[in-house]
Amino acid sequence: MMIPTATYRIQFRNGMTFDRASSLVPYLKRLGISHLYASPIFTATTGSTHGYDVTDANEIDPAIGGRDGFEHMVKALKAEGLGLLLDIVPNHMAASLENPWWRDVVENGEKSRYARHFDIDWTRRLTMPFLGDTFDKALAAGELAVKADPKTGKPALAYYDTLYPLAPASYAGRQEEMLKFADRAAIAKLHDQQPYRLISWRDAPRELSYRRFFEITGLAGMRVEDGTVFDDTHRLILELVHSGKVDGLRVDHVDGLADPKAYLERLRHEAGPDCYITVEKILGEGEQVPTDWPISGTTGYEFIAAVSDALVDGPKLDELRSAYEKATGQPVDMAAELRAAKLLMADNNFAGEVSTLLNIAMQIQPTEDRESALSEAAVKSALRELLVAFPVYRTYGTRQGIPPEGREMLAKVLDNVRNGPNPPEDAALAFLERIMVGDVEQAAAGSASIFRTRFQQLTGPLMAKSVEDTLFFRQHMALALNEVGAEPLPRSFSLDRFHAEMQTRLERQPDALSGTSTHDTKRGEDARARLYAITEAPELWADGVDRWRRINSHAVRTLDDGPAPEPAVEWMLYQALAGAWPNDLHAEDAAGLKALETRFLGYVEKALREAKLRTNWGDPNETYEKAVLEYARTLLSPSNQAFLTDFADTLRPFIRAGLVNGITQTIIKLMAPGVPDIYQGSEGLDLSLVDPDNRREPDFDTLQQRLTEREKLASTDEEEWQSGRLKQHVIATLLRVRQEAPTLFRRGEYLPLGASGKRADNVIAFARADMDDAFIVIAPRLVFSALHASLAPSRSERWAETEIILPERLGHRRYRDVCTGKLVDPKDRIAVNWAFGDHPFVLLLAE
C-alpha cells in the first residue's frame, strides 16, 4: 500500500471544478503534496455547496466537470506523479426527488426496488417532512393541488414548486380526471392512498420514519450492511479504485453505519490491499480506533486536540475561567451544561429516535421473566440516562452482542449512571444492559439486535449535536478549545501529555491523517493558534473585554428576556472577532471592516442559533437576533474608532504570539507521527470562521505567486510571518524532507527531548529517529510575554541559558539545517539562543 506523504484537501463546487483543480496540480507538486484529497465528487442536489447530499452515487457530478473533467484531472495528477483520495459517503444519500432511487421509493413505497436501500421503517407510511405546516393546514390554505408533472406527464401532488409522484394504483384509469381535482376532500383522500405522508418539517424530530444524518431530514440513511445496497452504492467508487485512478478513500461518518467493522472489511476486500483507507471518526478521551478495523486510521480530529496540549498554557486556565465567570456572573459547570445539552437533544431533537428505542425495549420486555413488569416511564428514564452518560460516540456491537472493549465501556457507563446524581430504577437499567449485551431470551434476540444497532447509531449524533453544535456554542471561556474532536469536560494541558499522545499515535495509527483545519472545524487553524495565546494572558484579555463592553454598552438592548447581547455572548463576540481579525486590518480601513463584517455576521447568527438558548434554527427569535447582530455591526463600524483602536492595539501581541503558535503547530503537524493534511488555502494564513466561511475558495493566484522556486526558506522578517509566506515556505521545505525520508517519518521513533534553563517551558523539542536517520525539531511555545512590549526581555536574553539535551543516539553527529543549508555539530546539547539565531525554530536533518 502506498501511504501518502502529504495530502491537500480540495473543496469542489462553489466555483471549484475539475479543470480548475487540474490547473493547481503543478503548484501542489511544488508545495510537496503527494495526494490531492477530494471532497465528494458524485452527483449531488442542484446547487449543493458540499456534495454530501448525493443523488447518484454512480455518476460524477456534471456540475463540477463530469466524467470527462475528472479524467482530465486524473491525467494531470499522474503527469506530476500525484495520487488521488476520494471522500465517500456510505451513510446517507439525499432524500430528494432529484435522487432517482428516493423518487422511486416515494412513488412505489415498499414495492420499489430501492425500498430497503434506505433505512426506512416500513411498519408505517414514509414520512415526508417538507411542509411548512401540517398537511391539513397546508391543504386548507390552498397550498396543495394535483398537477401534471411536466417531466413525466403523470399526475403529481403539488406543493408549491415540488411535485410528489403519485402511486400508480391511486390514479390507474383516472389520469385525466385527476388532473381536474380541485376538491380538498378528494386531495386528502388521494393523499391517504399514497405510500408516503406529507408532514410539517417541525414534526420530523418526533415522527420521522427513516434514519437521517444527524438532524438533517434531507439526508436519508442507507443500509450498506445489505450486500445489494453496498454493491449499488459502490459500483463507480470501486471502478475508480480498480482502474488506478483513485488511490485512497476517506469514509465519511463511519459511526453512522449499522456495523462499521463489517462495512470496512467489505470495503477493504472489494477495494484491495493497496487502497489507502481512513475514516472520519471522533475519538473520545483515551479512546483508540479498534485494532481490527482494516484501515490506516482516522482523518485526524484527535490530532487537533493533541496539539492544544503543546500550545495552551494549562496552569493559567483557572485564571481565565475566573475572569469569564466574573464577566458573565455565572460559574462554569461544564458537566452540568453538557448534561443539559444532551437532555435537550434526547427529549427534543432526537425524540423520535429515542421513542423508537423505547418501543423496541417495551416489546422485548414480555419475553423476559426475570423481573416484574417494568413501567414504560422507568425504562424511558433509564434509557435517557444511558444515552446522556455515554462519553464516546458509540460501541461496536453486532448481532452476536458487544465485543469485550465495548462491554468494558458499557460497564463503566452503567456504573456511572448507577452512582451518579440521577440514578434511574436499577431494574430498568439492568434490563437495558441485557438487551445491549444480548443476554435475552431467544425469542427476543432479533429485537435486541435491532435495539443495539439503533442505540449505537444514535449515541454518535446525540454526542455530536450536544457537544459540537450546542455546548461549544454556549460555553465561551476559551473558544480555541471548542473544536471538533475536543473534550467537552475540563482536562489538564501539558507538554508531557502531548508527547505521550504522539508516541501512542505512532504505535496505534502512524498512517492516519493529521489535520489542523478541515471543512468542519469551528475556526481556521491560525485563528485557533491566535486564540491559544489568550490562555497565556488571561488578565490582559479580561481587562480588554471589560473596556470594550463599557465602550459599546450603548449598543446593548434591553429585551423582555434580558440584555441583548448578554455578557457571555459579548465575551464570545470579542474572542471570535479576535480570531478572525486580519493581520493587516487597520481601524480606519472601512472597506476591510465591511468585508470582515459580512463574514462575521454570518458566524454570529449561526453561533446564536446553535446555542439554542434564546433562539434556534427551528424557531428564530428575530428580536433577539436583530439586537445582537446590530451590536456586532457596531463593533465593526468605522465610526466606532474608540473601540476599534483599542481592540486593534490590544490584539497586536496576541496576533504576534498567534503567528508563532501557527508556525509551531505547522512544524508539529509535518514532523510528528501521521500523514499531514493541508486544508485548501491553509498553507497560507487561515483565519476563517465556522462553515460556510471556512469553505470559501482561497486566493490560489496569490498562493502560487508566493511559492517561488528558490531552495532556501523565506526570511523571517515580520512581514513574512504576517503575510503567511513564511508558513507556506516552512510547509514546502518540510514536505520535501518527508519525501526524501518517508520511512523516517512513517515508522521512525518519536523521541521527546528535554529542555533545561530559564526558558525550558517555552520550547517544544522532539526528534524522529530510524536506524541512521534522524531529524530534530525545536520550536517556541507560550511566547506571549516575550512578544508583549511591556513584558518582553531583550532579544539577547530571550532564550539565554536554555538548552536542549540530546540523548546519546542523537548527539555527536553532524546535522544540516534544512532552512539554511548550514551544517552543525551540536555535540550533546543545543543552546537555544544560538540555534534560534537565524530563525526562531530549529529543523535539523542528520547527515
UniProtKB/TrEMBL annotation:
<dbReference type="GO" id="GO:0047470">
    <property type="term" value="F:(1,4)-alpha-D-glucan 1-alpha-D-glucosylmutase activity"/>
</dbReference>
<dbReference type="Pfam" id="PF00128">
    <property type="entry name" value="Alpha-amylase"/>
</dbReference>
<feature type="domain" description="Glycosyl hydrolase family 13 catalytic">
    <location>
        <begin position="12"/>
        <end position="738"/>
    </location>
</feature>
<dbReference type="GO" id="GO:0030980">
    <property type="term" value="P:alpha-glucan catabolic process"/>
</dbReference>
<dbReference type="InterPro" id="IPR017853">
    <property type="entry name" value="GH"/>
</dbReference>
<dbReference type="InterPro" id="IPR012767">
    <property type="entry name" value="Trehalose_TreY"/>
</dbReference>
<dbReference type="InterPro" id="IPR006047">
    <property type="entry name" value="GH13_cat_dom"/>
</dbReference>
<protein>
    <submittedName>
        <fullName>(1-&gt;4)-alpha-D-glucan 1-alpha-D-glucosylmutase</fullName>
    </submittedName>
</protein>
<dbReference type="GO" id="GO:0005992">
    <property type="term" value="P:trehalose biosynthetic process"/>
</dbReference>
<dbReference type="InterPro" id="IPR013797">
    <property type="entry name" value="Maltooligo_trehalose_synth_4"/>
</dbReference>
